Amino acid sequence: MMTTLTLPAPAKLNRLLHITGRREDGYHRLQTLFQIIDLCDQLTLTSRDDGVIQLATRVPGVADDDNLIARAAKLLQQASGTHLGATLTLDKTLPMGGGVGGGSSDAATTLVGLNALWRLGFSLDELAALGLRLGADIPVFVHGHTAWAEGVGEQLTPVTLDTPWFVIIHPGVSVSTQAVFQDPQLTRDSRPITMARALQGGASEWRNDCEAVVKRHYPAIAQALDWLSQHAPSRLTGTGACVFAAFEDAQTAHAVAEAAGHHGSAWVARGLNTSPLHDALGC
Ligand SMILES: C[C@@](CO)(OP(=O)(O)O)[C@H](O)COP(=O)(O)OP(=O)(O)OC[C@H]1O[C@@H](n2ccc(N)nc2=O)[C@H](O)[C@@H]1O
Ligand SMILES: Nc1ncnc2c1ncn2[C@@H]1O[C@H](COP(=O)(O)OP(=O)(O)O)[C@@H](O)[C@H]1O
What we know:
Blueprint: E1 4-22, E2 28-48, E3 53-55, H1 68-80, E4 85-91, H2 102-117, H3 124-132, H4 138-143, E5 147-150, E6 155-158, E7 165-170, H5 177-182, H6 195-201, H7 211-217, H8 219-229, E8 234-236, E9 243-247, H9 250-259, E10 265-272, H10 276-281
Parallel strand pairs: 3-4
Antiparallel strand pairs: 1-2, 2-4, 2-5, 2-10, 5-6, 7-9, 7-10, 8-9
Helix pairs in contact: 1-2, 2-3, 7-8
The protein binds 4-diphosphocytidyl-2-C-methyl-D-erythritol 2-phosphate and adenosine-5'-diphosphate (ADP).
Adenosine-5'-diphosphate is lined by residues 59, 62, 66-69, 96-104, 106, 238.
């Protein structure tokens, strides 16, 4: 019987991010295009008979009880009533709090992977609903398809986007998502658009409503955006700190990433339409 799985947890980019209003609970309504990319963390999940959820690796700065993979595993255990446990090993590549959704994706891979390992038989819809209780960015990674999203990011429609090579720069500062959403100067009244219109417009019309506020508060992000914009149109992902630009060929992307060194860490990643997690599990 299968007792160990090693699975990818891919990152995402917000190719477009509009803030269209605020819910009664203070959370902001968004319209966004989430694109999955091939930059990944790796998770190894090993089933155990004693019911214990054990973290074999620590995430710096995150208490084990707060770690999203431990929380996801415990939530799935509770929801299913299984007597099984798991040892969870996380090989972290994705920058934390960078707007590429690493923690959310780790949690999604835990839910989808343990569902297979423990043979629970939950559907992806059921797992996405569980994931939403831990974070708004988790459902897209559970479903595993590049998507148009509304609500707080949980109402998903799968779409197919171009699959360029992205240069992603993390300017080495950490952005507080909460502070961005609390800023009085944040654009929070963008007129809602249809998905068809967003897709028709194409990348040249896509923007991120958080960008102006984030650039004002974090000069390093403004500088990275200005520098990258000399090579190709550049955007912030999520509430930052990462910025990205799309290139048609890998060679150009690698040359730009190499030259980006003085602005922070830089990666090259390919845009995807389906998640490598779902490719690996055949689901
Ligand atoms: C805006 C996005 C787009 O992908 O940014 P990134 O986190 O990826 O950068 C996400 O949806 C972010 O979701 P997530 O990262 O789960 O946000 P949380 O940590 O729950 O939010 C921190 C705080 O930001 C505010 N917040 C967050 C999301 C939202 N739609 N409206 C809000 O007003 C709330 O005050 C919340 O307490
Ligand atoms: N397994 C995990 N990996 C990364 N961050 C985690 C994890 N568990 C909890 N966190 C917390 O979640 C925060 C946001 O993580 P992350 O998803 O990487 O950022 P973002 O939502 O900006 O892309 C981190 O700063 C950290 O405090």
